Amino acid sequence: MVHTESGTFQRFDIGTHQNQAPAREFPQPAPVLDFVWYPTATIHDPSTFCFVASVRECPVKLLDASDGRLRASYKIVDHRERQIAPHSLAFNLTAQKLYCGFEDAIEVFDLSRPGEGTRLPTTPSKKSKDGLKGIVSALAFSPSYSPDESDAQPEPLMYLGGGPQAGVTQLRFNPLRPHILYAGYRGHASGTIYSWDVRSNVDVPVEIFRTTDKPAARSNQKMHFDIDCAGRFLSTGDQVDQCATGEAGL
Fold this sequence. Notes:
- The protein has two domains: 1-139, Methylamine Dehydrogenase, Chain H, CATH 2.130.10.10; 156-250.
- The protein is built from no helices and 18 strands.
- The strands form five sheets. The protein has a four-stranded antiparallel β-sheet with strand order 4-5-6-7, with no helix packed on it.
- It has strands spanning 2-3, 8-11, 24-27, 32-37, 50-55, 60-64, 70-74, 88-91, 97-102, 105-110, 118-121, 168-173, 180-185, 192-197, 207-210, 225-227, 233-237, 243-247.
- 26% of the residues are buried.
- By secondary structure, the protein is mostly beta strands.
- The chain is globular and about 45 Å long.
- This is DUF2415 domain-containing protein.
């Protein structure tokens, strides 16, 4: 699945041919901010073959990946009753909850029951300098981390160093090597993906991936990347309507 600047989702059925047309296209009424597959999605099980999308000025959508129909929607509104479209989306490891990141907060929806989400502020107030200020632009859950509820704490466990000091657009853990964390960036670092081994020294990345050997053009667009379910291949898009796939590293 890819989403384009025109606000359209394109689903490809990957085969042996390099040049392929999308199997299905699902146009949206506004720009797409983020999307994420349902964790156990497979075309062989229609009930799981779906994904969640954040579209500007729309409720969060749960869309059927076979035909694009709307299965469910999740509303996030601010104090002025304006619709909020989150900048980042992530399912928890059991796929029972959906986390939506936006400015100064994360909205959590319990998918087992209808109703409004639970808002988790990332900063005490607009004027406060404490906490995590600004837009929550990326969310990810480690497949190997299953803490007890009593282990929850507000303090960060670690800080990652050696990054490009640019805006983070995406985070992803390797499905089969959950100690490897990948991060994508915007601005002068667009077109690069950094990775860290969170078991050891996180002051420097273990590997840096580039979509091309040529210097990437500076861009504030969110260049989405993903890792296959076997944790072997990393794929990402670029500004010229192409997708690149390579080994996911160590």
